[in-house]
Amino acid sequence: MNDNEIDRSIREHNFMLPTAVYVDICRSEQVDHVRRDGAWIDIWTRTGWHWRIRIA
């Protein structure tokens, strides 16, 4: 997945991702690191994109 595909997927789910979508995104080679902060999850890509999501 590239940054635009990740962004589209996250926005399609209103930043509340089903587990399967979250796992697919995390497996992407584009993802640099993921951090959990309570109920929130931050995802960064190698090119600097960032999202703050929750798991549905």
Core attributes:
32% helix, four-stranded mixed β-sheet, 4 strands, 2 helices, 56 residues, alpha+beta
Describe the protein.
- The protein has 56 residues and is α+β, with helices and mostly antiparallel strands.
- The chain has two helices and four strands; from the N terminus they run H-E-H-E-E-E.
- The protein has a four-stranded mixed β-sheet with strand order 1-4-3-2.
- The protein has helices at 3-12, 19-26; strands spanning 16-17, 31-37, 40-45, 50-55.
- It has one domain (3-55).
Integer count of domains: 1
Shape, principal axes of CA atoms:
globular
- What is the terminal separation in angstroms? 21 Å
Largest sheet: 4 strands, mixed
Computed over alpha carbons, the radius of gyration is 10 Å
Q: Helices, strands, pairings?
A:
Elements: H1 3-12, E1 16-17, H2 19-26, E2 31-37, E3 40-45, E4 50-55
Parallel strand pairs: 1-4
Antiparallel strand pairs: 2-3, 3-4
Compact summary:
The protein has 56 residues and is an alpha+beta fold.
